[in-house]
Design brief:
By secondary structure, the chain is α/β, with parallel strands linked by helices. It has a single domain, classed as Rossmann fold. It is 45% helix and 21% strand. The chain contains five helices and seven strands; from the N terminus they run E-H-E-E-H-E-E-H-E-H-H-E. The strands form two sheets. It has a five-stranded parallel sheet, sandwiched between helices. A two-stranded parallel sheet has the order 3-5. The longest helix is centred in the first third of the chain and has 17 residues. The chain is globular, with a radius of gyration of 14 Å. It starts with a strand and ends with a strand.
Length: 133
């Protein structure tokens, strides 16, 4: 475990994923990159005004600062697109060996309507996926 990609959205599960990432990075002396994907929804209002670029910039800044306080310097990425697919592409292109993501605890109806990013990544990514709960 040398390159960790942390999928971060500022939620409580993401904070757990951040803590897990910090523990792993320290234990394995791994580099960390944090990604916060601005969701783009084709066919409707492209970017949610409550989940836009400014929100993600703040989330990334907060994650970077939290990691820095733990002694970890992280690269920060803020792409736009489908969150799960974008995280997978970044992981593959960047040759990350681990993705860490938080589990939101969606019920079956919520997963059907919204989709679960962590579930999608866990079943589609070509690398190790750690889901923090």
């Amino acid at each position: 475990m040398k390159r960790i990609l942390l999928a971060y959205d500022g939620s409580e599960p993401a904070l757990k994923a951040l803590a897990t990432t910090a523990d792993l990075a320290k234990k394995f002396e791994a580099t960390v990159t944090v990604v916060s994907v601005v969701p783009v929804h084709p066919g409707r209002a492209p970017i949610d005004p409550w989940d836009d670029t400014a929100v993600h910039k703040t989330q990334l800044k907060d994650a970077g600062e939290a990691l820095r306080q733990l002694g970890i310097e992280a690269e920060l990425l803020e792409p736009a697109g489908d969150p799960a697919a974008t995280i997978e592409k970044i992981a593959a292109k960047g040759e990350f060996d681990t993705i860490v993501v938080g589990a939101r605890g969606l019920n079956s109806i919520e997963r059907f309507l919204q989709g679960s990013v962590s579930e999608h990544i866990a079943t589609h990514a070509q690398t190790t996926v750690v889901i923090a709960r």
